[in-house]
Protein 1
Amino acid sequence: SYNGERCSMNAVQQEVINKWTCEVKRDSLTVASLVEKIDKGYKREPSGIILDPIYQREYKFTGKKESSIIESLILNIPIPVIYLSQDIEQDIIVFNMIDGMHRCKSLPIIA
């Protein structure tokens, strides 16, 4: 407990903090490179994007919503940000989809 004295972390506590550090990086992908990374994810290849990690909810987009995503891409309108987490606890480094699975799966080449 803290009683006004300086607290120090032990090595285990520091390791836990380092493991859960959040580093945000911005990137822009073409549809083709996004599809390539998702394809790698299905094959569990390095740098692949896993669309459906265990915590993802069921796909529920309607045809109309899918069409609006495709239309946005055709008209060169940016789609909302996609969030990924880097999974370094597996044999290969992959990225798990946190937010954006519905937008990605609405592309006919990915469904």
Protein 2
Amino acid sequence: RNQSDERWAREIAANVRGAEIVMYSTQSCIYCARARAWLDTHRIAFTECDIERNSACLARYQALGAQGTPTFDVRGVRLLGFSPQDVAEALRHPAPGATPNPTAAGSGAQP
């Protein structure tokens, strides 16, 4: 399990650019806490949006048609629950509106 986690963490870290991972969460959600801990432990950049404390987050969460937390928006792909494998697979798709440019890999600007 740990070796698999490390593999997914490396793939996610290599492919994520800026704020491409958004986690919609609540304070009382134990699964959100576990996802947050995994992402933090593996130093994966993500944005957390608390739907109970932030009305703009709630509006975006509802617009996604989300039905539970954590819900992730990864490059426009909605994921219910947290799976490092699912996040890695979502990051394999080009970002909406992006044009493939292999020479620009790794040069993404941070917000």
Protein 3
Amino acid sequence: SFTLTGFLYWALYSFSSLARIFWRSGLLAPFLLLLIRHRGGGRLAPLFRAAGWHAPLAGLFLGAAFTLWVLAIGATTVANAIFIYCCAPILAMLLARVFLREALSMMGVA
């Protein structure tokens, strides 16, 4: 099968990290809006209103995570970035115990 993935990856690889973030996000946004519009019956405004204030906040956090991930890959080896990324649930569990006083369950530790 023919795809443009290899070419696009090669083209974006020569850019700086911030340029890669810009182009990947810029290419993602229109397609995501089309998908939301298609699944929502053709109208975007009611869908955004129904989502409430949680949706833009989640979008900001997702954008920050995406940006920081690309910058991390550019600043260190992929193995180190993935190791830190995979430790995030453990860190979240420990911080929830310290700051929110949540009990640690065996299922959560496993």
Protein 4
Amino acid sequence: REREEDLQNPRFTPGPWKIGDTNGLGNTRIQPVNSPHTVAVIVGFETMGLPSPHDVDPTEAKANARLIAAAPELLKACQAAKKYLEPDLYEPGRTVFWNLVSAIKQATQA
């Protein structure tokens, strides 16, 4: 069984995160709101109005960046929902609960 400490103290850069600057190669950074530190780099953004050199649809790249930037808040929401649903282990709550447990485990365990 997962340790509660691991769920409460994940080993990743604390959020919230934002979509940062796009460089001249069509890559954009995901970074903490109050830091220049880079959490991730997403390829596929348009460069100066030209198509991306990375063979990635710019619309898909932007959607990926938004999802990654929202990860810390999504994890918090999953953890809160898990606590709320935990006592209700009847359907449909049971399925939702175990889906949340799985998602939280993927996000917090190395």
